[in-house]
Amino acid sequence: MLAQLADVLIPAGEGFPSASDAGVARDGLDLVLSFRPDLADGLKRLIADASRCPAAAFVAELQCSDPAGFALLAEFVPGAYFLNSRVREQLGYTGQNARPIDPRPDHLDDDLIQPVIDRGPIHRPTPT
Which residues, in sequence order, are bridge partners of residue 13? Predict the structure, then answer.
């Protein structure tokens, strides 16, 4: 059921796998819940409620009648999807990389501050 709900939010397309093909309801579920165990009860409730109608209809109804439930699903599914290494590779996302910080303070760069200096002082008088 979770795979069906996830595929409503992220269907296959343009060379990318659907959420279910990316393992959102398998490895993705375990991985996300290892970071966010607080989502487990809400997901269980959604999955139990979803069994009463087709996945697309349930997601549409959820979006209108239960914004918190929809937000939970909309947080979990993409989170699990983008943890999939195949998806990240297709996106060209290699992860967060350390970049050295320029030790020179950029706020002192003449190109940034000069327009402020050129316009001169401006202010609005405060009411008395």
Answer: 16
Cβ-Cβ contacts under 8 Å for 74 (sequence gap 6 or more): 9
Q: Which two tokens stand for residue 121?
A: 């002082």
The structural domain count of the chain equals: 1
In terms of pTM, does the model score above 0.85? Answer: no
Distance (Å, whole) CA 16 – CA 45? 29
- Asked whether residue 40 is domain-assigned, the answer is yes
32 belongs to a structural domain: yes
Each residue's pLDDT tens digit, 4-50: 999 999 999 999 999 999 999 999 999 999 999 999 999 999 999 99
* 46: containing domain: 2-94
